[in-house]
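Priority: low. Protein: Chorismate synthase. Input follows.
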Amino acid sequence: MALRLLTAGESHGPGLVAVLEGIPYGLPLTAADIDRDLARRQRGYGRGGRMKIERDRVRILGGVRHGRTLGSPIALWIPNRDWENWRLAMAVDPPQAALVDLAAADLPPLPPEPGAATGAPLPEAGDPRDRPEGPPGGPWPPTGAGAPTGAAPAPSAADGGSLEPGRAGGQPGRPRPPADGRLEPVTRPRPGHADLAGALKYGARDIRDILERASARETAARVAAGAVARKFLGLFGVRIQSYVLRIGEVAIPSPVLTYGEGGRPPVDPDRLAAATEASPVRCPDPDASRRMVEAIRAAGQAGDTLGGVFEVLVTGVPVGLGSHVTGDRRLEGRLAGALMALNAIKGVEVGLGFAAAALPGSQVHDPIGYRPPDAAPPPPGIPPEAAQAGADGWRGPTAGFFRHRNGAGGIEGGISNGEPLVLRAAMKPIATLRRRLPSADLLTGAPFAAHHERSDVCAVPAAAVVAEALVALELAAAWLEKFGGDSIEDVQRNYAAYCQRLANWVRPRDGVPTPDAPGHGGPGRGSA
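Result:
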């Protein structure tokens, strides 16, 4: 069965839904497996005020029983805590009907105020930069909670909202209808967003109909689904991690493309991961991490935002995922497409990427070597059959073949070659910034200076975590295409048989393949 994902939900709606179909029967899975990645997505220096409100946790609504998947679609629900502030503006029913329901509702308490001890990660780059900003010279703090341009602030007691306890649904300190300025149509598109293009495409006269779904808040649902795919791949020793290489002008080179004499880079994936997660911007280089933080702080103080580049490293990938036979099955195309579908991503590289265009072929293509597969006990987390076929925790099963470097980024001819996958993505700066850019009203065409709502100054560290999820989903889909089965036991059995075939691929005599061994002889003539 093909792996399929569908997400639903709006940024300020009740919550986000992800339905993942195709995970086989019998995968051990709990909410904690998913919550870890949801928490990682919320961290990072430069995040905005929304992270003070949300504390993402998943509820598994279907497809799992007693800690194991059932082979049926897995339904995941991530509530939006900020929904309490938007119940009328984002109601499903028409406003008048929603108003009646809201007035009669016995609502739960509002989320704690920003900075309360909720355990939610707080944005270290906060202060006024992550708060909504009103017109120049206007009052501070603003009364709204970050409504985009064109929407009025939330109601207060002065403009008709009720703060009285004892009324139906009333709670002390909670603004109540009838007035809610967020119902006003949003007509002022923000440069760099989907606002204008989406409104014109769909014929929407209220930009909120576009911006709520276009928001990067939706990526929480994809991270939740990706965590399931990560758990599946982990059964076979596949590991996915990411780290930041650039924020603004501060950059470091990839730590994994240059191989040493042993046919692998000098960096250890465990140490790389530890250094990454210890950094507030998820950069493994401490000096560069410090300078990145300073760059984000300076950009925020200037009312600006910063983008950057992150890298995704996948170790333990076997040779043979993807295919050369048709364009839509080529692994690099599928992975690049998944990464380009992430909000604000404007470029993707595999291996050397664009740098390969400036080098001669002798410095780009990766020389091939061979060493007999090691039958020693496998490293932790690697199935014994994979170790017998050459898996070592860095590479996956390869029948003993390896590359002396990894300019290809683990993919040749659309097929994984057993080396780690190395993928990079370039993220543009966040489009919502305090430095006002010119725009034009959606309905009148009148010019105006775009306003600011709460936003991140830099979200590159978080985007890297989302990218891990997208890569996990695409790899899990390719894995099931090659080793598919209805249950985890089926997939494991098919994978073990493949590893055994690889382990017996070369039958060496004194270290030299016999003439009748599969693959003996030189490659055919190349052709364009």
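The longest helix spans residues 460-483. Residues 107-178, 514-528 have pLDDT under 50 and may be disordered.
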